[in-house]
Amino acid sequence: MDNEKKDRLAELEQKLTLKTRNGSQLIWLTYNPNADFDYDISNAEEEVRWMIFEIKRLREENDHFREFIDSYNIQMKKELGIPGDSED
After folding, report:
1. pTM of this prediction exceeds 0.85
2. Which of 78, 75, 28 is CA-nearest to residue 51?
3. pLDDT digit string (tens) for the chain, length 88 residues
């Protein structure tokens, strides 16, 4: 499932790059009865790029925490003499 998420993020990044290269815009539409045609339109590219950056950063942070927990688990099993998946 994790690979599926990474593929989807890479696909989103690729689509955003293609849209920018082709001159297309990524926009937010917000209902506003006082606006022309009842909607406000604003550029969403910066927010989407920020979300992609944050998702990548959080994944990297999660990987670091996972490595730390695995290492800590192995160390505690060795110190307590608990048989298991410890790397000898």
Report:
1. no
2. 28
3. 555 555 788 888 888 888 888 888 888 888 989 988 888 888 888 999 999 999 999 999 999 999 999 999 999 999 988 887 645 4
